[in-house]
Design goal:
- The chain is of the alpha+beta class and 104 residues long.
- It has one domain.
- It is 48% helix and 13% strand.
- The chain has three helices and four strands; from the N terminus they run H-H-E-E-E-E-H.
- The longest helix has 28 residues.
């Protein structure tokens, strides 16, 4: 089932305009690296959060989800994904551009 979904997504060609828009969103975001900090895994007291700067005095990112009349923290998997995306997406954009240049 997972392979089918990946195949369905890959049937759409990512044009230069979309790739440039992805790259622009990355450039506009807080600089990386981002790292998720999860209570009990990465620290022992306080909320789960994403550190978007290496500086301790810089504001962190707190992610929550609203549903059924309550707001709850985002899952550990979601925090890890969001934090990793800051590093992963620029790397993927660079790899796509490298592969395209190799094919030209």
């Amino acid at each position: 089932m997972r392979a089918f979904r990946a195949t369905a997504i890959l049937t759409s060609v990512l044009g230069d305009e979309e790739l440039n828009a992805i790259d622009a969103r990355c450039a506009a975001a807080s600089p990386g690296p981002w790292k998720s900090f999860v209570e009990g895994r990465d620290h022992w007291s306080g909320d789960d959060f994403i550190r978007v700067s290496g500086a301790d005095d810089a504001p962190d990112m707190y992610v929550s989800r609203a549903g059924a009349g309550a707001i709850r923290p985002a899952s550990v998997s979601d925090l890890d994904f969001i934090a990793a995306a800051r590093q992963d997406i620029p790397a993927l954009v660079a790899e796509i551009r490298r592969l395209r240049a190799d094919n030209d």
